[in-house]
Sequence to fold (202 residues):
Amino acid sequence: HIEFVAYFCSNQNMYRRKMAKLWVSALGAALLLSGCSDASKINQCLGFDAQDTVFVINADDIGMHPDMDKAVFEMYEQDIVQTFSLMVPTPNFNFSARYAISNKAPVGLHLTLTNEWQEANSWTPLLSQEEVPSLYNEKGFMWPTGDELAEHANIKDVRKELEAQIDLALEMELDVTHLDFHMLYWAYREDFWDVTLSIAKH
Fold:
């Protein structure tokens, strides 16, 4: 799917205010990865003038399925989407990564700790079950929901897996510009967010 991210704050809805704050924090983590300081103007950090209005369409879940990936690449080449985010543990990641490298496309990393498809489109953590046992369910896949992940995940395993996903992308010399998050895993436990932000800062 194509992800349209808007930052919205309503004085009448506490949940919306909280989610707006979390989304802005998530954007801050992405900007830290690309070398922007906390004091930077977001527009200028992205290479635009301070007075510019900027609307970026990002396609996520890339690497999940060849047909979807090819459709997104066609939209990228037509400038319908301006950026896309790769899921490192997924079945079509290597193909999609090669496309990004050969086309010199800047990419996000869609950090992944869940697999909602299970047998229908299976993937596992990048690291082995011996290395991150709490991230595997009884079927040998990632947990299908954020609630199940939150119930079972050891935070040390979470850190190791996220770092492994980022390290592999950087070792492949992908031009990584930002981080975003599959199924908003970070919202299910406070320490998930803390670890994600810590990794992005470094």
Notes: The beta strands are 2-3, 58-62, 83-86, 107-111, 176-181. The chain has a mean pLDDT of 83.
